[in-house]
């Protein structure tokens, strides 16, 4: 889901006076890497003018909610097997975005802005993230220069998944980052994969 879905809802702790300290949800496009490389790390392209970016200066706590239903309008016309059946609202009454087999994932963590600097690790990650964002969301490259756009990531501390009846599954973060995208589009465990989580 993190690799195939292209947008979701990020929730921050509002700094607006009318809704201070309440949840604020906002649509955001994201990537976890280029088309052929999945890192599992959600990267965002934000503007200092946007409310979510303003909130994240007050508290870095953030969540990103994803739904398989968003792939119903995927630009290439492809969608995972079963999504049309389980996610699409229809007269048959079978599918719905809230239907548990229509998978949903909520990742929660700390927002970390990526900066250009002397640290080659940070600079390399920023370059990769920006290249990935512009590849998978081409219009971003033409967004206004005077809107102070910058790249950031969500340093994941929790993954909450529903993809079937019977309640949610909490995914182990280390196991999640131990998976690697294979040439056939599946994921397999790879203990040697690069971990981009922020070291604390």
UniProtKB/TrEMBL annotation:
InterPro entries: CREG_beta-barrel, Split_barrel_FMN-bd. Pfam families: CREG_beta-barrel (PF13883). GO terms for cellular component: cytoplasm. Residues 2-177 form the CREG-like beta-barrel domain. PANTHER family: CELLULAR REPRESSOR OF E1A-STIMULATED GENES, ISOFORM A (PTHR13343:SF17), CREG1 PROTEIN (PTHR13343). This is CREG-like beta-barrel domain-containing protein. It comes from Proboscia inermis. The lineage of its organism: Eukaryota, Sar, Stramenopiles, Ochrophyta, Bacillariophyta.
């Amino acid at each position: 889901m993190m690799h195939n879905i292209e947008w979701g809802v990020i929730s921050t702790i509002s700094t607006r006076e009318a809704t201070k300290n309440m949840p604020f949800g906002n649509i955001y496009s994201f990537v976890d890497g280029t088309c052929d490389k999945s890192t599992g790390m959600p990267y965002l392209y934000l503007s200092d003018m946007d409310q979510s970016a303003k909130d994240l200066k007050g508290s870095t706590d953030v969540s990103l909610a994803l739904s398989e239903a968003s792939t119903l309008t995927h630009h290439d016309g492809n969608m995972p097997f079963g999504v049309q059946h389980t996610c699409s609202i229809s007269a048959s009454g079978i599918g719905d975005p809230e239907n548990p087999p229509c998978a949903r994932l909520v990742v929660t963590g700390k927002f970390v802005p990526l900066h250009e600097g002397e640290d080659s690790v940070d600079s390399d990650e920023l370059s990769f993230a920006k290249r990935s964002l512009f590849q998978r969301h081409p219009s971003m490259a033409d967004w206004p220069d005077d809107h102070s756009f910058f790249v950031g990531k969500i340093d994941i501390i929790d993954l909450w998944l529903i993809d079937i009846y019977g309640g949610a599954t909490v995914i182990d973060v280390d196991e999640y980052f131990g998976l690697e995208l294979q040439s056939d589009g599946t994921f397999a465990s790879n203990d040697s994969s690069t971990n981009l989580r922020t070291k604390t």
